[in-house]
Amino acid sequence: MTTTPEYVPTIVLSRASAGGDHEKPELTALIHGLEASMKSAIEATGARVISAEGFTEADVDAALSQADGVVLLGGGDVDPDEYGATERHPKLYNIDRTTDRVDIELVNQATERRLPLLAICRGMHIVNVARGGTLIQHLEPSAVVHSGGGVDAMVDHDVALEPASQLSELYGDGAMTIRSGHHQAVDVVGAGLTATGRAADGVVEAVESTDPTSPLIAVQWHPEDGKASERDRELLFGWLTTQAREFHARHSEVAI
Questions:
Q1: Which pLDDT score, from 0 to 100, does residue 122 have?
Q2: What are the distances in angstroms from CA 60 to CA 55, 80, 96, 220?
Q3: How far lies 165's CA from each of 158, 173, 203, 212, 236, in Å?
Q4: Angle 19-25-26 (CA atoms, 0-180°, nearest 5)?
């Protein structure tokens, strides 16, 4: 008796948003390292990855026509012009307007196609901006440390998950320890999104889609970081691959 091999879904991975205006070279190096870790983490769940490196907005439609899911990487700050801010904080860095626009197009088309979407750190900011939300351009010191200094920008802190959210279904109710490094955060939550994770100081650490037919989880933390929990990687990227296989199955049925 032979068994049918499990379908290998295709995941489009946004390009790393590195360099740009007010570049911090140490951040650029970190971002590229996380990009490689992300690709490996996704492939470990049984999916294949197509990189959006070199994409323009015009390339997005063709790429997503063969995709089963999308991942938005972390990276530099989103240009405040994208969410209508009238002032720019002096501590903004690694701003890449071209990548912002490609990433926003990825969100818009993924939403239209109802492709499963997982967004990490800056990726969560892009999702929120694409849905009409706004960002806190720079977090002031609080009881929670959200990023480290120097080369190691990552720190560990707790996040409380909302009951009945997709994340609480994955991880269990209550608080979890995450690994993050960010100086910006979601401010006004965008349309069709709901905040499902917060740090003790109230900073939004996760958002999800309110539309169950359009699977979307966006988190402020970095499960792909080498010092993050292996369980975190398995659960979150496993969720994406499972959703991608289900997306493919639904669309295969429609095509028959």
A1: 94
A2: 7, 23, 17, 24
A3: 17, 9, 17, 11, 13
A4: 125
Residue 194 has pLDDT above 90, yes or no: yes
Nearest to 238 by CA among 41, 13, 31: 41
Residue with tokens 């037919």: 213
Active site residues: 121, 222, 224
Neighbour tally for 140: CB within 10 Å: 7
* Contact assessment for residue 104 and residue 14, using Cβ atoms and an 8 Å cutoff: no
Amino acid at residue number 211: D
Q: Does position 76 have pLDDT exceeding 50, yes or no?
A: yes
Closest CA to 126 of 161, 174, 75, 66: 75
Band (pLDDT 50/70/90 cuts) for residue 93 is confident
pTM: 0.93
Report the length, in residues, of the chain: 256
Model confidence at 15, pLDDT cuts 50, 70, 90, reads: confident
**Bridge-partner residues for 50, per DSSP?**
12
Torsion of CA 108, 114, 120, 122, to 10 degrees: 10
Find the DSSP H helices in the chain.
25-43, 60-64, 97-113, 122-130, 166-171, 230-255
In 3D space, the residue among 254, 228, 212 whose CA is nearest the CA of residue 33 turns out to be: 228
